[in-house]
Amino acid sequence: MLKLFDKNNKEIKYDINTYITDIFPLENFSAFGLTMDGKYFKTGEHAFQYLKYNSEEIRKEIINSNNPYDARAIGGGIDLKE
Predict the structure, then answer these.
(1) CB contact set of 75 (below 8 Å; sequence gap of 6+)
(2) Residue 46 falls inside a structural domain
(3) Backbone angles phi, psi at 19, to 5 degrees
(4) What pLDDT band is residue 4 in, cutting at 50, 70 and 90?
(5) pLDDT tens per residue, range 24-72
(6) 51 assigned to some structural domain
(7) Backbone φ, ψ for residue 50 (5° rounding)
(8) Residue at 82 is within a domain
(9) Of 6, 11, 38, 53, which has the highest C-beta tally within 10 A?
């Protein structure tokens, strides 16, 4: 079971086996949050950018950014982890 959240932080449950025709919530910039490793991310883009770095300072800045465009701007301007 895949757990997703809408922009009002209301949980939306999908069975991944029947999810194939409804892809929009999985796009990085869609307004659906997700929980990964016990952390909440506002969008998939926030999670993607977060995973690129080891620095907790940068990760915190990405998580706290207001929208996926800001998360991408923060993550795109910093050197990647090795």
Answers:
(1) 48, 49, 50, 52, 53, 58, 62
(2) yes
(3) -85, -15
(4) confident
(5) 666 777 778 889 999 999 999 999 999 999 999 999 999 999 999 999 9
(6) yes
(7) -55, -45
(8) no
(9) 53
**Residue 50 CB partners (closer than 8 Å, separation 6+):** 39, 41, 59, 62, 63, 71, 75
**What secondary structure does DSSP assign to the chain, as a single string?**
-EEEE-TT--EEEE-GGG-TT--GGGSTTSS-BEEETTEEESSHHHHHHHHT---HHHHHHHHH-SSHHHHHHHHHTSPPP-
Domain that holds residue 61: 2-76
